[in-house]
Design brief:
The chain has three helices and nine strands, in the order H-H-E-E-H-E-E-E-E-E-E-E. The chain is an alpha+beta fold. It is rod-shaped and about 105 Å long.
């Protein structure tokens, strides 16, 4: 299950606030108990109790300082956790945005190459510049009128031809041999080359 950035940040901040409130309630209860202590009313012990109370005040102040330090340390800890989480999410989203940025057609070295979306709509140069990773397109090369042309080969971001590049898939509406290609996350551009095959002349190069 994927969580949105807002949900994660809200959870972290909410947890920090909850910790802060718990500490505040704890300190408030302890301070209330301390204030509710009543000194005995015996006259003979009055002076001793007052001195003891003064000593107790000193102890309470020291304890309060320690607890206040604990609150401050807790808030700093929550702030650091929140800051680290937000920084991580921003970095990850930036990386994701970079990965999902438009894939540019670096160069098309063969004539007659056409690009289509998955609905067989012809892509203009501007449309092609908006392609992103994960999209599926059709890459076609226009067939000539030569009846001896029976297939084509199309390669993308590769310098070597292989049998896997060959295709006999044909769309008669656009008169193209074509392949189906899904744009990869690693594709920063599409270097496309295509050739037609003639049973008489072999692979037709420019």
């Amino acid at each position: 299950m994927e969580y949105s950035t807002f949900s994660i940040i809200s959870a972290v901040v909410g947890f920090g606030v909850l910790v802060f409130l718990i500490l505040e309630i704890y300190l408030f209860i302890n301070e209330k108990k301390r204030r509710s202590i009543k000194l005995p009313s015996f006259q003979q012990e009055k002076l001793a109790k007052e001195q003891l109370a003064k000593g107790q005040v000193i102890v309470d102040k020291s304890t309060a300082i320690k607890k206040n330090n604990l609150v401050v340390a807790s808030l700093i800890f929550v702030f650091l956790i929140s800051f680290t989480t937000i920084a991580f999410l921003v970095t990850r989203n930036a990386a994701r945005s970079s990965a999902e940025s438009s894939v540019k057609i670096q160069k098309v070295e063969s004539k007659g190459i056409m690009l289509f979306n998955d609905n067989w709509q012809l892509l203009t140069d501007q449309d092609a510049e908006q392609l992103v990773a994960g999209e599926t397109i059709y890459i076609g090369i226009e067939k000539t009128r030569d009846e001896n042309v029976t297939k084509a080969r199309i390669r993308v971001n590769s310098d070597q031809w292989s049998s896997e590049n060959e295709t006999t898939e044909y769309n008669k509406d656009f008169n193209v041999f074509y392949i189906t290609y899904t744009i990869k996350d690693s594709d920063i551009g599409l270097d496309i080359q295509a050739e037609l095959y003639s049973q008489v002349a072999g692979w037709l190069t420019e």
